[in-house]
Fold this sequence. Notes:
Elements: E1 18-23, H1 26-34, E2 43-46, E3 54-57, H2 72-78, E4 83-85, H3 89-106, E5 109-114, E6 117-121, H4 131-146, E7 150-155, H5 158-168, E8 173-175, H6 181-185, H7 198-206, H8 212-217, H9 220-227, H10 229-238, E9 254-265, H11 268-288, E10 291-302, E11 307-317, H12 320-334, E12 341-349, E13 352-353, H13 365-381, H14 393-397, E14 419-421
Parallel strand pairs: 2-4, 7-8, 9-14
Antiparallel strand pairs: 1-6, 1-7, 2-3, 5-6, 9-12, 10-11, 10-12, 10-13
Helix pairs in contact: 3-4, 9-10, 11-12
Amino acid sequence: MEIIHKFVKIPNDMERTILHLDLDTFFVSVERKNDDRLKNRPVMVGGIGDRGVVAACSYETRPYGVHSGMPMKMARMLCPDAVVIRGDAGTYSEQSKIVTEIIKETVPVFEKASIDEFYADLSGMDRFFSCHTMASELRLRIKRESGLPISFGLSTNKLVSKVATGEAKPDNEMRINHGEEKTFLAPMHIQKIPMVGDKTNQILNNLGIKYVKTIQDMPVEMMGKVLGKNGIALWNRANGRDDSPIIPFHERKSISNERTFGKDTGDVKRMREMIRAMGENLAYQLRNGNKLTSCVSVKIRYSDFNTFSKQIKIPYTSADHVLIPQIERLFDQLYNRRMMVRLVGVNFSDLVTGNYQINIFDDSEEKLNLYMAMDYIRNRYGTDNRGNSILSWGSTLGIQNIASMGNPFNGEPPIIPAHRNA
């Protein structure tokens, strides 16, 4: 049964209190928890080859110019004394679950934004207990029970709380009182505001805008002329305004797709193409929903309605080039009867929150860029005139593609059932 997410709406007369929690240099902290020798040493986690990418780096590497997302080869040149570790996605996911359970037991409503980042709505809790005291005690409990450093920001909205967390790090906390949001943000560089990337930063720099206060002093209409709707959104953020809701956390355990053939088939090539297309589309849905899977299964239903399935456990991933070969291998092991097939299906389960960047322990920068580019094209251009997703096997096979159905992890019911005729 699907659980539908509902945005948490606070009455207009109640002041919001939003807590943002962020595990400090999460991957590095987990490695240090497991190996005391890494403490106070420069550490980089990511792909260990020259073409790998830095997934996370300790604060000791920052003065050398190292940052996450940069090529590992460059990072090694900048900080040659750093310890380089190939990450373990499964271990990080388990540690994230420990923290998630603690938060779930403590706060009434929370959102898991990523594997190491959380929001909690404490609005109205001041009637019974100081929100700041509650947040501080939660942080101390997480540190005590998980052994991981964590920081938080507390304010009236998600934006200011997130920025406050960044200012509080490492392993600290910061509270911004109601009415102080604008003053808090004013002296900061514009790139401290979420949504200001390199491109937007360059546009603003060309206009002589480097600090948030400059945007605060500008008329909103001017920002609209420069950046359109994004300019208006940025002006609101610069002024500490953000009414985005907390989306309550519910973990979806699996995602699947099945196809019933209009006429029973024995065409092995057609069936392999079908499951490949379904696997590709499900993998895209995982990446689009910031999810990873560690269990892949394939199902076959023969014309006599006997149904068989086979599954395999794998390291957490959402990558086509990892998942599709597993799907094809399972199908080859499973399809061993000389009988017509009525239905085929693919299922990904044991899902955890985490984006595709977590797989950079194995992948090159070029492969990561390729996935980001393909997903960007899918997100931007969507479907062709037949309703099939751009850049998919399904579109070449005449298969309606689930990639056009939105994010299956946002709690909304599917537009059409996953089980459809092919």
